[in-house]
Amino acid sequence: MQDRDFNEECAVVGIFGRADASKLAYYSLFSMQHRGQEATGITTSDGERLHTIKDRGLVTSVFDDDTLKKKLPGYISIGHNRYSTAGDDSILDAQPVYARYDLGEMAIVHNGNLTNAMQIRSELIKKGAIFQTFMDTENLIHLIAKSNATNLTDRIIDAIKKTEGAFSFVFASRSKMYAARDPYGFRPLSLGKFKNGGYIVASETCAFDLVGAQFVRDVNPGEMLIFRDNQEPKSIQISSANPKHCIFEYVYFARPDSEVFGKSVYHLRKNMGSQLAKIKPVEADMVVPVPDGGVPAAIGYSQESGIPYEMAIMRNHYVGRTFIEPTQEIRDLKVKMKLSPIKEMIEGKRLVVIDDSIVRGTTSRKIVRMLKEAGAKEVHMRISSPPTTDPCFYGVDTPDKDELIASRMDLEEICTYIGADSLAYLSDDALIDSVGGEDHYCTACFTGKYIV
Ligand code: SF4
Q1: Cα(344)–Cα(362) distance, rounded to whole angstroms?
Q2: Sheet architecture: strand order including 50-56
Q3: Which atom of ligand 1 is closest in space to residue 186's alpha carbon?
Q4: What is the pTM of this model?
Q5: Whole-angstrom Cα distance, residue 442 to residue 36?
Q6: When comparing pLDDT for 73 and 120, which is higher?
Q7: Distance from C-alpha of 229 to C-alpha of 17, rounded to nearest angstrom
């Protein structure tokens, strides 16, 4: 999936009990940049007040050493990488969301999408609340500020109980940090520990590896962890767990070196490829991934089928914007800027091309055309997930249903549209088998069976 049609739903991190909290948040956010490139932000607490820096842009462009040292002091930090899902892409909608209220100060970061956000917002507005942003995350701030409970912990619990949908939240006050996950556990959130003291929570464990933290466990669905000075994290089960983890994390979103929902993403993506080879074999000379998403599945396909694996499509990681409209001569400019075939490798060859998904179909069509123009004899597309037929309402930015090619065309029509010699997807059952066979996954974008 090269056209980013399904966009990652943001990354969150929280660091507690570390003198270098802002730096650790920075490196964690850097490792999770793939989950959001629109804006980034960090809030720290030095025990007396909260400090926030956020802006549009990448982690490395928003923060420098001086900012982290001088403007973000403290032993607690929370951070966020944003890809706009709810709200818009203005700086106002960058996170953390900060507020002063009657008990002091707080800041919050959120990964997910609250399905009853509009209803809560209009109730709050009727009662006189004024909102600064379009983000559903701001609802939480209002619910916490308006709660009748006398301490922040109980107010957060009150607010979370009124909230439906997908969320992994991290809150910071002057002296505490909180990490909470919705009862379905749609979005990932893991707990880690530093050897010489202190804790981390993050959307993906690849953050732990970079900052030298050990994975402890996932924050459980429906659970909230409270981090206080000189104490182990305290667990409160706010609502009973009914796990429905986002299976698309395994297909596409998460980094292959992360463990998500307790399993290695790389390993599962390879499984998807080998399942695909078993159920959708084809005679070919080489297996070629669409980089980067198709790489682990292509390795799995190659190992299972015995067809040699070749990196015959190279990806340019430094692609900027296109400033000219492609003419006929330089058609498909955007795709060609990102991907280019190694001609002498593929000339006259029959290729099995592995990608993680087809969303609108336009990119697959361009890739097939590019490979054929480069001399491929046959192009057989194999997709390591089922057809994406439905949009996501749980924190992933997706096109509308009628823009999803698989919602309006059958297999043969899609194959004709993209110009491939054959096309096959992984089945729903084979996808579930590839990730371990359990039924605790959300598969709504493949099946239309929505949980909330
Ligand atoms: Fe993930 Fe798809 Fe479910 Fe959204 S609908 S949470 S992308 S599996």
Answers
A1: 25
A2: 50-56, 39-45, 76-82, 11-16, 199-202, 190-194, 213-218
A3: 6
A4: 0.92
A5: 21
A6: 73
A7: 7
State the chain's mean pLDDT as an integer.
92
Sheet order of strands, 165-172 included: 97-101, 104-114, 165-172, 177-181, 223-227, 234-237
For residue 308, what pLDDT is reported? 98
The SS3 assignment for 70 reads: helix
C-beta of residue 199 within 8 angstroms of C-beta of residue 215: no
Q: How confident is the model at residue 335 (pLDDT cuts 50, 70, 90)?
A: confident
Q: Whose CA is nearest to atom 2 of ligand 1?
A: 445
Tokens standing for 294?
């198709």
Q: How many CB atoms lie within 10 A of CB 81?
A: 29
Q: Does residue 326 have a pLDDT over 70?
A: no
Pocket flag, ligand 1, residue 444 (CB < 6 Å): yes
pLDDT (tens digit per residue) in 42-77: 999 999 999 999 999 999 999 999 999 999 999 999
Tokens of 431: 């996808």
Radius of gyration (C-alpha) of the chain in whole angstroms = 23
Q: State yes or no: pLDDT of 328 exceeds 60.
A: no
Whether 10 is catalytic: yes
Tell me, what's the pLDDT at 184?
97
Does the pLDDT of residue 88 top 80, yes or no?
A: no
Q: How many Å lie between the centroid of ligand 1 and the Cα of residue 433? A: 17
Residues in the chain: 452
pLDDT at 327: 60
Alpha-helix residue ranges (DSSP H) falling in 76-168: 117-126, 137-146, 152-161
Ligand 1 pocket check: which of 247, 356, 426, 432 to mutate, most ligand atoms within 8 Å of Cβ? 247
Ligand 1: does its nearest atom lie under 6 Å from the Cβ of 254?
no
Question: Where is 167: in which H helix or E strand?
Answer: strand 165-172
Tell me 34's DSSP state. G
Regarding the beta carbon of 452 and ligand 1, being less than 6 Å apart is answered: no
Residue 93 — very low, low, confident or very high, per pLDDT cuts 50/70/90?
confident
